Amino acid sequence: MCRSSDRAAGTRAGHGGLRRRGTRATAIAAGLLGATLFAAGAAPAQPWAGIGRAATPDEIRAWDIDVRADFKGLPPGSGSVARGQVVWETKCESCHGIFGESVEVFNPIVGGTTKDDIRTGRVANLARPDYPQRTTMMKLSQVSTLWDYINRAMPWNAPKSLTVEEVYATTAYILHLAEVVPADFVLSDRNIAEVQNRLPNRNGKLVYDEMWKVDGKPDVQGSDCMKDCATDVDIRSALPAHARASHGNLAEQNRVVGPFRGADTTRPPASEPGKLAAAASTQAAVTQVHVSRGTALKPPLEIAKDAACLACHSVDRKLVGPAFREIADRYKADAGAADFLALKVRSGGQGNWGAVPMPANPQLSEEDLQQLVKWILAGAR
Amino acid sequence: MGSTDSTPGRIRKAPEGILSPQQAGQAHRARRGFMAKALAMGAGAAAAGAARAADGDPAILNLPAHTKSLGQPVAARGYGQPSAWEKNLQRRESPGLTRVSAASVSFTPLQGLFGIVTPNGLHFERHHQGWFDIDPSGHRLMVMGMVREPRVFTMDDLMRLPAVSRIHFIECGANTGMEWGNVAVPTVQYSHGMLACGEFTGVRLSTLLDMVGADTKNGRYVLAEGADGSSMTRTISMESALDDVMVAWAMNGEMLRPENGYPLRLVVPGVQGVSWVKYLRRIEVGDQPFHTKEEVLHYVDLMPDGTHRQFTSVQEVKSVITTPSGGQVLLDRGYYNVTGLAWSGRGRIERVDVSFDGGRNWRGARLEGPVLSKALTRFNVDWVWDGGPAILQSRAIDETGHVQPRIDQLRAVRGTRSIYHNNAIQSWRVSETGEVFNVQVF
Known about the structure:
The complex is a heterodimer. By secondary structure, chain A is mostly helical. Helix content of chain A is 36%, strand content 5%. Chain A has 14 helices and 6 strands. The longest helix of chain A has 16 residues, at 81-96. Chain B is an alpha+beta fold. The model of chain B is unreliable at 1-51 (pLDDT under 50).
């Protein structure tokens, strides 16, 4: 939208008139004071053009941390493989393993590349369907990416805590684990481009425009056949029976009403139409809801809220009915108060606190009732 | 739950009431009374007394507590919650997919949702380094790089700017990724649940680029960067940036949820979710793609020859039947409203066809309005289940004429190890017992 010539021209003029239509004075004003001076006689600018402010050089330095493939943004510095090993063992190894091979927490970083890959720039194992994993070093086509990501996001639990030297060193150590650089290597901004030329998968990427541009051409087109279409209707893949409950009980992952229920995957599939599966799953679903609404640990105020007590009572102030604390005050010396009050809450009544009747509360469970009464008599705290 | 016949509180549906006792018995044995039972249970298991079919439904005959007592006051919950009966519909992790939950994904329960708008609390999550609830008063957006004047915006600033609201889908590039090689998960939540759709409100990125005087001629790329620990970065094309990309603070009428980037995220319509950078702190205009980690190591599509396709971003035409779907059980024979979702990152959905015989014959589904560009489109189609086996599929066609492919068509070009951008036709097998299974059929 801002490429439309009218608006772009107007904005440029408003911001400083450097290209057309603007006055020299406007250019200077905008240049000096940011975009706050647009009022008097300036060329047409968007009325919101003054919102925001110029970023300071220090602010840009603080946040402009990205390192591009051409190494734009890479800070000068260096770090040795040896130093990298120290960083690795204290800050990286716990997740990534001694040799960057661990699959315990994240995907492995090192492995699967060969000396021949370093020569060709293509990782041969990527073409092997039987090769079990794809490590970072198998996929990495830009060494800048490794440096950038360690710098911005590592260590995982304390990102941006490494010094520039530590980032170079850790990068060097990983490259050494992958046999891209020797043990005595010192990686720096001056030799990183040479390292790029040794990356095992540096030639393994294809920038794929067809799925980058919204008007790109799809590489796989389906068929819009409507009748007697060619298909075997063969079931080529399905979950094995032993994986039935791999994602938990599906009865508990579906709604309790509607035309479907979740399958009860704690049992084998039903052998007859509809047999038990649906009813059982409903039971499971409803039971689960009841359990999750369990009353044992419910705070008394929640009980009061759920039972609609708070429509008429508050903790410390008289509303329609007395405050809970007024009730506590009145009965504090009365040993039988709990039973009396439980009966009043359960059955309702009139006359103790005025003419407005208290409704019965048959819906309260006995446990909730006892807990509620105890809490009220203790001052509702 | 052994024998339904001996369970008290069972009711029979009206049609059985006009059958002879013998016929009714037969009909009942055929259906095992589970629908009636299910309804009774759903309405409140405790209320089910010893009513007989002749008396009527205990849910009608015995007035429930909510009909006979005082309900909750207004504002009992300052921020409303779904009914406790809806607790089964939750975002869930897929077991074994990841090893640490701060670098993981949770899936939207598509099997239970309606229409095209995903409830904010059920919007899928993907975090690389955990999520934060960021103080919006301290949040800043810097727009810099190849611009005349790099600038900083506070949330106060951004929310003063001319706002737009647009409904768009967001789909993770890896959605359905576990199914490239074979069936791996049981339900649509796990197969397609990295998908959501909502109304986003924010300022167009083009407005901001305009304000900083971006060099859009030479600066053909934009880097977006987050403010969280991973400070995740993605390259956006300047073409998109000037077209429909938004810097959004709101989703479905309220501010973004923290899990979805509060207070600010990028919205890149039609493009995979990883580009919708959350906790957005910085936009940089540049003359080359940035080759970030999510463009070099992840979100690259492995082809059979070992090459990785890079910068594959557009989410191509796709659809899925959400109900009935894997892991669900049909309660009875007869009529069903089969429903699902269709979407395309290249524009509007033109047509959705549905097959009940594994792709041999197809018929058109009803598209529910609104049918919007780069948004989910809801479709419905009538189906009468005769109790026999069936294989349900849906197939979408977008306004560019792109037809959603079968998995074998995708594999013929891209192999089986791609992870990303699997937009294959989904098959659900309905067994004679009414249970639905995830299968691959072609």
